[in-house]
Amino acid sequence: MKFKFWGVRGSIPTPGPRTVKYGGNTTCIEVNNASNDLLVLDAGTGIFALAQTLLGRAPIVAHILITHTHWDHIQGLPFFLPLLSAQNQIHLYGGMDPVTQTGIERALTAQLQYSYFPIIETQLKAKVHYHTVRPGETLQIGSTLVTPTVLNHPVLNFGYRLDDSDGSSLFFTGDYETPSNPYAADDADYASNQQFIEAKLREVHAAMHGVDALIIDSSYTDAEYAKKTGWGHGTYSAAIRLARQVQARKLFLTHHEPTRSDQELETIFQEVLAKAGAVDFEIYLAREGVDYIPT
């Protein structure tokens, strides 16, 4: 298995000279497994650049796994050009929204309403298959086993673990904030809530344990997080702590804060590495256009 980032920014695309090195598209990761299947993790604006590389290839079978349906993770989906060819098959995976009780088809149909996009859904020529994923229920895509785990974010958000037949593995969090107890220690609800959080953390750690590549939302510094607690995003320090706990072999920090320039990212990264001290895994800033091998 190998993978490539096509989008590494959080919240909103940030094209321009300040983001040339690491990239300014929102979240999208291409994965090619041992059986040469095309898997795509999230459909932020980066999926448009991925689609350009697929022109001239047909038929295309793409498996797009959506972590959650916030804009920066689905906004590029209507621009995924293989949707326009009758030769292609697109499989779209995601959760059932607990509030609206709609499946992952909402990620496409909502964006193709006439008020927002010039092409309507019936004009898509590809065969589109919608798949509802459920926590802990493993599905198989070619040589890869995909296991979803619900992660803390202000909407239903699945992290995906991919285990390939070649022995490699990765876990992608989508957006993720380590859960914390909102109650004071002397509050009557503190103990039960803490018990729930600790059980959930054990589940998350088990899902990530021993993974070759851990790709995790690392939006904020600790100082920034103090003002953005509860927004559903993680910190660099939390990512490193988690990689230690689950014994990941490589850690990829992504969902870069959209206001950061490449230089600012690298300055913060050096500070994070110095503060982390010795670690027994490799740490990378996610960068668009670079091929990575998990192992």
From TrEMBL:
Q: Which SUPFAM superfamilies match?
A: Metallo-hydrolase/oxidoreductase (SSF56281)
Q: Which superkingdom, per the lineage?
A: Bacteria
Q: InterPro entries this protein is in?
A: Metallo-B-lactamas, RibonucZ/Hydroxyglut_hydro
Q: Name one Pfam family in it.
A: Lactamase_B_2
Residues in Metallo-beta-lactamase domain copies: 25-209
Q: Which CDD domains match?
A: TaR3-like_MBL-fold
* Residues in coiled coil: none
Q: What is this protein called?
A: Beta-lactamase-like protein
The scientific name of the source species is Methylomonas methanica (strain DSM 25384 / MC09)
